[in-house]
């Protein structure tokens, strides 16, 4: 009888405690690693048969996971190629452990243990995260091979003896340690398998489940059913991203989306990725309905490698703005480590990143060109995504500038070039600069919008959380164009023309008006200025400087402008010297009445900006009642 004991060649006795320590934060991956190894073994036997190197019966490939609560074991079985005793020594003792030796030398100065473990082929040894003894029972596919058994207790000592396995394949039996008994549970194991193995290419069996099948009819002619126990196969071995788009209908894409995200609304559209040069990548990316809440639904793209789930933290592979998408990317070319969840900086990753950006831009461009009406209908859902892409990815901007839309207060949509033409005649100032006006709150800024409309100016609606950044980006990109919020100043100042209205007040009267308003308002944060505007404009307008307000808005969104966020709000109070109310104030002899009229006009301006609240609002209401 074959029997051999030995010591794994390694310079230190405590490799396993170190592996445990480094991997412990994610100890459930032991199951993924062992199931993935079992899948590889079953695929190899199919490959050998197809190459004519194995003439035996391949059978139905399957991996089975089982557990025994009383014996405290978890077993992963496959009917793959199996191993001889020599192969166990080579693959389990030498290859992995030469990796372990190198690992021991390197780990001391490493910053990220997860990142290094990956380079040393230690996947099998993740078993020792949960087991204090690991046993292999295996029988090789080779003619005349004898069954072999390997056992190791997590020290560097192992034993190889004759095994008991009668059929080709391998069992890995974990004798679960006291701290890991939570894994001896049907629901726990099912959950891990659902997470990592749901789309593996070989059927994974985990126990049985009860199903109901037809069983004739009862006396009343009603259909009877009976309970049957069937294998609980936890995976779909041929998910849609492994198929050609020509084989799939819309319904298949929508059903798969529901499988991934059971409680989500249907997506707007999707992109099927399929490339095999210069790297290998397949997948399906879905555009979800985003609306304006800008919840970064990150971790919605799942990354796979050969159908094994790796991670849903895909930020290195997918450009930041595409994190808003949902779906699946599968690539064997992405470098992964033992925990298969940390991506190294790698040229393939950069190429994949560029490829996905291009595919997404091409898809959007095609939708816009082929069905503009349908694209405009979806704009409310995809606008934020496109704007985010424009801000964060230069390559995306180059294409997206042709299909990003601007929407005005009348709900009309324009491309950037169309809008330039639309406002060229009316909104070019005396210096030849185009000024695009926008509102971020149509209801609150209605008086200012109407003021702009009276001049035949157009007003864009920019009310998504990302629009502050988008506006700044447009100003950098567009020549001789600036964007101003419609309430950032009085309309004549926002777009300065040569034909400003003439003054009707003398310089002395202007000085008196300023004194009356300064004393009626009596607030240092509000700076009074006298302007000659159209008599149709409001008597008093309160505005905040465009640049200052933009900085504050960005600070509120956490845009690294915290310094501005902490600065006090300062406003400009523009008094329209050409309005008849101002003449009336000057003609009033009663000083108290002058002050009351000035305060009323100022409060009206505050009210139109939503700045009048609390006791000041109550005082305004009471004063208005008295004045009626």
Automatic annotation (TrEMBL):
Pfam families: HATPase_c_3, HSP90. Belongs to the heat shock protein 90 family. Keywords: ATP-binding, Chaperone, Cytoplasm, Nucleotide-binding, Stress response. It comes from the Bacteria. Gene3D superfamilies: 3.30.230.80, 3.40.50.11260, Heat shock protein 90, C-terminal domain, Histidine kinase-like ATPase, C-terminal domain. InterPro entries: HATPase_C_sf, HATPase_dom, HSP90_C, Hsp90_fam, Hsp90_N, Ribosomal_Su5_D2-typ_SF. ATP binds at residues 33, 37, 78, 83, 98-99, 170, 340. One of its GO terms (molecular function) is ATP binding. Residues 26-180 form the Histidine kinase/HSP90-like ATPase domain. This is Chaperone protein HtpG.
């Amino acid at each position: 009888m074959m029997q051999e004991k030995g010591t794994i060649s390694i310079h230190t006795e405590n490799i396993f405690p170190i592996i445990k320590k480094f991997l412990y934060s994610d100890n459930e991956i032991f199951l993924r690693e062992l199931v993935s190894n079992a899948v590889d073994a079953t695929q190899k036997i199919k490959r050998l048969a197809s190459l004519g190197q194995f003439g035996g019966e391949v059978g139905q490939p399957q991996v089975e996971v089982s557990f025994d609560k009383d014996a405290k074991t978890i077993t992963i079985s496959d009917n793959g190629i199996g191993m001889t005793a020599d192969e166990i020594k080579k693959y389990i003792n030498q290859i992995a452990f030469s990796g372990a030796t190198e690992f021991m030398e390197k780990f001391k100065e490493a910053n990220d243990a997860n990142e290094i473990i990956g380079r040393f082929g230690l996947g099998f040894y993740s078993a020792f995260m949960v087991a204090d003894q690991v046993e292999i029972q295996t029988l090789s596919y080779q003619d005349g091979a004898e069954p072999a058994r390997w056992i190791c207790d997590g020290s560097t000592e192992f034993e190889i003896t004759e095994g008991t396995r009668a059929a080709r394949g391998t069992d890995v039996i974990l004798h679960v340690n006291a701290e890991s008994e939570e894994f001896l549970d049907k629901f726990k194991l099912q959950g891990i398998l659902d997470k990592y193995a749901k789309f593996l290419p070989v059927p994974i069996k985990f126990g049985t489940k009860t199903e109901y099948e037809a069983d004739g009819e009862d006396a009343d002619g009603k259909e009877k059913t009976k309970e049957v126990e069937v294998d609980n196969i936890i995976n779909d071995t041929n998910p849609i991203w492994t198929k050609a788009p020509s084989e799939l209908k819309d319904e298949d894409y929508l059903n798969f989306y529901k499988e991934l995200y059971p409680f989500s609304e249907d997506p707007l559209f999707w992109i099927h990725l399929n490339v095999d040069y210069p790297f290998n990548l397949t997948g399906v990316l879905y555009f979800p309905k985003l609306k304006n809440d800008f919840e970064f639904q990150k971790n919605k793209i799942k990354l796979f490698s050969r159908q094994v789930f790796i991670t849903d933290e895909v930020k290195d592979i997918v450009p930041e703005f595409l994190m808003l998408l949902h779906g699946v990317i599968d690539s064997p070319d992405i470098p992964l480590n033992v925990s298969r969840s940390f991506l190294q900086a790698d040229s393939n990753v950069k190429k994949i990143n560029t490829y996905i950006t291009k595919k997404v831009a091409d898809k959007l461009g095609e939708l816009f060109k082929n069905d503009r009406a349908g694209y405009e209908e979806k704009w409310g859902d995809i606008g934020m995504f496109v704007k985010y892409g424009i801000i964060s990815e230069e390559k995306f901007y180059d294409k997206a500038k042709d299909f990003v839309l601007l929407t005005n207060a009348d709900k009309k949509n324009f491309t950037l070039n169309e809008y330039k033409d639309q406002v060229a005649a009316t909104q070019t100032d005396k210096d030849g600069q185009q000024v695009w006006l926008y509102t971020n709150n149509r209801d609150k800024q209605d008086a200012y919008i109407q003021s702009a409309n009276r001049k035949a100016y157009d007003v864009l609606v920019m009310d998504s959380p990302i629009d502050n950044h988008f506006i700044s980006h447009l100003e950098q990109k567009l020549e001789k164009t600036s964007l101003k919020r419609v309430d950032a100043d009085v309309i004549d100042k926002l777009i300065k023309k040569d034909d400003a209205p003439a003054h009707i007040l003398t310089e002395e009267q202007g000085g008196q008006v300023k004194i009356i308003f300064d004393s009626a308002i009596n607030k240092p944060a509000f700076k009074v200025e006298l302007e000659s505007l159209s008599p149709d404009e409001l008597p008093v307008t309160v505005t905040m400087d465009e640049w200052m307000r933009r900085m504050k808005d960005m600070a509120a969104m956490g845009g690294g402008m915290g310094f501005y966020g902490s600065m006090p709000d300062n406003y400009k109070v523009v008094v329209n010297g050409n309005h008849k109310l101002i003449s009336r104030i000057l003609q009033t002899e009663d000083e108290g009445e002058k002050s009351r009229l000035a305060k009323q006009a100022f409060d009206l301006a505050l009210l139109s900006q939503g700045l009048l609240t609390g006791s000041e609002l109550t005082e305004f209401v009471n004063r208005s009642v008295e004045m009626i």
